[in-house]
Structures are given as C-alpha cells and as structure tokens.
Amino acid sequence: MLAALPGVAHADENGISFWVPGFFGSLAATPQQPGWSLANIYYHTSVSAGADVARARNFSLDRVPGNVTLNANLNLSVNATGNLGFVIPTYVFETPVLGGQASVSMIAAYGVVGTSLAGTLSGVLTGPFGNSVPFSRSDSISDTTWGFGDLIPQFALRWNAGVHNYMTYITGDIPVGAYESTRLSNIGIGHGAIDGGGGYTYFNPQTGHEFSGVLGFTYNFKNTATQYQSGVDMHFDWGASQFLSKQVMVGAVGYVYKQLGCDSGSGDRVGCFRSQVVGVGPQIGFLFPVGDMQGYLNLKAYGEFAAENRPSGWNTWVTFSISPPAPGAPPTTKPVVRKY
C-alpha cells in the first residue's frame, strides 16, 4: 500500500489526506513469494480547486483575521503539481500467520510539490465593540517544497483459495516528513494517522480474468501545529484486467474516496468540510524475468470527478518492482541462454 503522498493534493485539512487514492490496484490480494522484494514508484499529480479549498488554505496560513466573516462568493483558486518517487522494501514471511501469508513494508518518499493560490477574499471584520468593517484581501502567492515525506510502515496478511484471494492490512503515518504549518506546499501531512482495511482479488490464470478491490478507513490524529483534526475517511481502490498473454495485461483502475466524519479542533475555521472524489482510468502491465527474480512494470492514470472540498485533476503512476517469482502467478518467459 501507499499513503501520504504530497500534502497539497488531497482532502480533509486544507484538502489534504493521509491516504492517497489509487495505490491499491490489480492483484492487490494475491500472495507473494517469501523473501525480500522492492518496489519503486514515480507519481505525478496535477490538481486544482476553487474557493472553498482556497479559503481553507488561507485560514491555515493565518492570512485572514479570526474575527472576519467571509462572503459566500469568493474569487479564489488553488493549483498544485507534485512529482515524487517512492521506495518500498517488503519482506514476506515463510511461516504462516493465522493460516495466511504475512508481510511487512516501509514506504519512504522524496520529491517536489509546487502550489499557487490566487484571488480575492472579501467579508466583514467584526470590531471589539461589535461594529462591522468591510474586509478585503487579494492574494497571489506560490510555494515549492523539496524534501522527504513521512514514513509509512505497513503489515498485511493474505490468504489464497484457488481463484479467490483475500487480504487485510494495517498501516500508519509517522509524521517526520517536510512540513511547516505556515507553508503553502508540504510533502508531510503534519500529524499521525492509522489506516486499516481488507481486500479481495479474483484471478483465474486459465482465462486471464482478474478483478481486485480494497476497502479501508483512516483515523487521523490532531495536528498539534494547527489544532486541527480531520475526520474519519473511507477509501475504495479497484482494478480490473485481462492478461493478453503470459506477460502482458491491460485493464482499468479506479477509486472512490469519501470523508465520513466532520473535521474538528480549535483550529477548524471552515466547519465540517467533508471531502470526496472519484477517479477512473486505464492501466497496462508487463511481467518479465530479471535474472532469477520476477520484474513487473505497471503504468496507470486516473482522471478525477465528483470532487467536493478537495483539489481534483489527474494523476499518473509508474511502478517497477522486483520480487521472487510467485507460484501460481502468471508465468513469465524464461531468459534465453545461448551457448557458443
């Protein structure tokens, strides 16, 4: 799994979430071969949002006095891009745990996030004697942050029963990444979080049909720098594919992300601020040998819609992983050995 991508692109506080929709995809619940594996991911996102998210960001930056009541019609927008790389080492245990296959992972990230905010805030400033004074502020600011993201440990269990595969996982955020509450762009999220859930994969090697879905929930701890606590989030990632050969698969991917609980805390100046987004797009994957290991390359992209209280746009993922060859997985071609 993967969580806590750039702190500019997603929901809850300022439209930022711990969970990054789209990490889980095809073959998510299928067991792996015991031993070490390594995944490397390049992630690019480009998103924008209107007045509600931009207003929330202005509040968190302390650019609006606390005694200002803003008008409903705000001419504000925020735009952001992120380019990040992730390194994910995983160890799969050979000894069964609760009849399933246990694995532990650690996710580390490094990259750059750029954000710009522009527009006009207008409202009414309440004076010390209850008098009202018109308030207006025009903003055009931008910020770019390079650095490391938060650390994300994860534990998972997987079970196999023929063409049916099941998984459960638990993960969390260790907030050690680049984060400053007064910055417009952040890579870390500034607070801890716990996330857990379960998933299912149907995979028939004979027909090449595959479908996977993973449902999870996130509990967010309070951000002590802003005294803001995001509500509980729900996320569902899915992937469907057809193996055209033993080495090539094509299909579709998608996700649904919805905040279930309201935001809270003394730093919450925007109210409940529940967020949601839906994404869908294509994918293609390739299996190939890397020495005596199995290589896997996957490219997928998502276009987002139905967004509320969060930026939306599009994102792309390029994943390259090396792992021990898994029994029952789609076979790859053997390397050609020539003797002269």
From TrEMBL:
One Pfam family per UniProt: Phenol_MetA_deg
Domain of life of the organism encoding this protein: Bacteria
InterPro entries: FApF
Name of the featured protein: Phenol degradation protein meta
Species of origin: Bradyrhizobium jicamae
